[in-house]
Amino acid sequence: MITFFLFHSSPGDSKGIGSSPTLEGDGCNSNSDSTGSALDYPHLYRPSRNPSMSISISTSRMIPSLPEDVLFMIFQHLSLQDVLSIRRVCRSFKDITHSRGLWVLILRKEVWDRDVPTPRFSLDHLSSAQIETLVASSLHLHLNWTSKSPKVIRRRHVTVAMPRARITSLHFITLGGCSCLLSFSLKSRVEPRTLTIECWDLSSLRCKARRTVQWFGGYAVNSDPESTGIIAIKTPYVEILAFDPSASSADLAFIPLITLNTAAKSILFFSGTTVIFRAPNDELKILDIIRPFYEIKLEDRQPFVPPNQPDSFEAVLNDEYAIILRPKTLALYSLRAFRRGSHPPSASLSPSQVHEFQWRIDSCVMQRQISPSAPYLSNDSKPSSLNILIRYSSLFPWPVNLLHHYILYPNDSYISSATNKHSSTTAGFAITSNNLPYKFPPVLSQTIVSPVRLFAITDMALGPYGTAVWFDSHTDYDGEVGQRSGVDDAFDGIWSSRDG
């Protein structure tokens, strides 16, 4: 049984943009209703408690006659609360505060500049009313998510097909524009071990795809939502699974896109068409499924890790480079020669930059920070900050009771080879010690108290918009930061955002 709670729905998730209550106010000469705005945003806009007691004053005697373009320039500098208040002054002010250009500016200032996520949409195709609805919905969900006691909007329960199976992981993905949940259920007490993969449509709770395989070690969900391949799994070959929307049943919807004969011990990472895996001799290797026979060993400078200690692995990858977080190091690899196929297969790919941490890492997570105004990071875009959350190991059988938040900042002077693919000057720039996409070492931003008892279950996650979620033994001290569910909202910047 899988039970998960939705503290928010994505803005425009169920009814679509334009169907939610707007931040509507009325001019003093109109009869429009503004109670929906007051109910949703009492701190932003509070209409008169007794409209019959209002005093009618001729606005022509109080408001100077200014051109609309001048008033529009003035209104650009107002806060959202001021815009909602001033639209009640007169009809001309109301008309200006309904202009599309003003709400585009409000969207950027009140939502995007504060890293409040919004659904994926084309701004050019939205009307003024739709943008206003988008702002209202985004701020409403953001306030709920960042409150100390978020209100549960919906509960979803799904039952996996395999009885008495242990759910090893859950992943949110998008299939055909629908939000889905991937569940991995392992039956470990039966040999050979079987793994059941199920994909659930969150709107209908219908199982869209299901596949049971003999599991031999490791799987990874594709971090690129635009790729055809969804899952890389060892079964005992390396299989890339895709989704067939025309399948007659859920049991036939997961289809093998490609089967690799490469010798792999476990799958570690999958992004686009790139797979990073551990070879039988514990070497790290990288390959592109488009060229499955071209494997390159990644030089991994790690100290000896005892067999009973966790061997953590996190990665962020694009066309030009890969950043890999290991139990002791953070390394940046240039993938230019690998992409071209010019790197000798017999030679190891050495990192261009390595940072060694002071202590060994017990568990970690790394995520690229993206802007709500640009939800998709293309390979041609400039690098964005990387958020790294680490729990270090200790000399005892349990990890330390602290979480460390690091930030790897981008290098503003970095010149990408993809900056101008048609220019012979910029296309020749490679990643070197003098031209790195990121500034090493990562900067420690803050340390968070997070106690873990002996043999307690703990986990953590980072969202692309900057939300940190973790599970520990207890975080109910009044002096500590974060919500009781483990969502930390008491920080500036990225930590106060939610992920949509």
From TrEMBL:
Residues 60-106 form the F-box domain. It comes from the Eukaryota. Pfam families: F-box-like. Residues 12-34 are annotated as: Disordered. InterPro entries: F-box-like_dom_sf, F-box_dom. Residues 17-34 have a biased composition (Polar residues). Gene3D superfamilies: 1.20.1280.50. This is F-box domain-containing protein. It comes from Lentinula edodes (Shiitake mushroom).
